[in-house]
Amino acid sequence: MSFSGKYQLESQENFEPFMKAIAAFLNCLPDDLIQKGKDLKSISEIEQNGDNFKVTVTTGGKVIVNTFTIGQETELESITGEKIKAVVQREGNKLKVSLKGIESVTEWVDANTIVNTMTVGDIVYKRISKRV
């Protein structure tokens, strides 16, 4: 299955508690930014060539571009804008990565749906995006 495509955020669960936990954990993200962010719809564009990926996430005016190769250390930009060295692993239809205590799993549930689950402590933030 190729992960390539453009996906728009359709729904999310636990955005505010997750962002507040990250803010406390990383000592960043003021409350006003969290409030603004919860209503923004993001677009994720994924380009896959074998084990090489380029992921571009556009949320409002903010664009994050990460490129990585499965199993190789790379520098990824987190949702807070911090650059973190990490290794992305692939398990079937899932991509998994740990970014400074934040566990992220992106799963392709079917040809048109991806679910990204991020966990910090006991708080789970779930994002469901559909192919556009």
TrEMBL record:
Q: Its gene?
A: FABP1
Q: Please describe what this protein does.
A: Binds free fatty acids and their coenzyme A derivatives, bilirubin, and some other small molecules in the cytoplasm. Involved in intracellular lipid transport.
Q: Please verify whether the record's keywords include Metal-binding.
A: no
- The reply on keyword Lipid metabolism is no
Q: Which is one GO molecular function term here?
A: fatty acid binding
GO cellular component annotations of the record: cytoplasm
Q: Where do the Cytosolic fatty-acid binding proteins domain residues begin and end?
A: 5-22
Give the protein's recorded name: Fatty acid-binding protein, liver
Extract the PROSITE patterns matched here.
FABP
Family from the record = Belongs to the calycin superfamily. Fatty-acid binding protein (FABP) family.
Give an example GO biological process.
fatty acid transport
Compartment(s): Cytoplasm
